[in-house]
Structure prediction request, 179 residues.
Amino acid sequence: MNTEAVLLLETVDFAAEKHRKQRRKDAEGTPYINHPIGVARILSYEGGVTDIEVLQAALLHDTVEDTDTTPEELEAKFGPTVARIVQEVTDDKGLPKQERKRLQVEHAPHCSRQAKLVKLADKLYNLRDLNTSTPVGWSAERVQEYFVWAAEVVKGLKGTNSALEKKLEELFQQRGVQL
Prediction:
């Protein structure tokens, strides 16, 4: 079997196990694993990304933030590059939500190109999700605020992948949000 295929399947299996009890915040309670798989698919299918470590990081991007996974565990299982990319896109859940959001905007321009790719695809997935399935308890105003904030993050990621950036720009234009 293709070595890269084996690596991706091992990564999907790890992420699925880590996220097995989690659900998205939509009314259907979609299995959470759909999100990281979707982010990796956006990178590959829409962004033309073939870098296996970026695709692995996309699959793992929420494991440290949202599960009991440690950076050390990721490094031991998937290597230092994948672990570093995941760390770059991981929020510190010990901080208040507004501070985490502020830091995402501040840090975006300084991330590696690999982390910027994961962030672009993650934002694209989340914004599309918000357009089709509002999380339980979210008002239209809160959704719009998320779009405005996401545009600030994406501004710091510009020049990374024109295909993904174009798709994000279209979503922001539909919402009347300037990029």
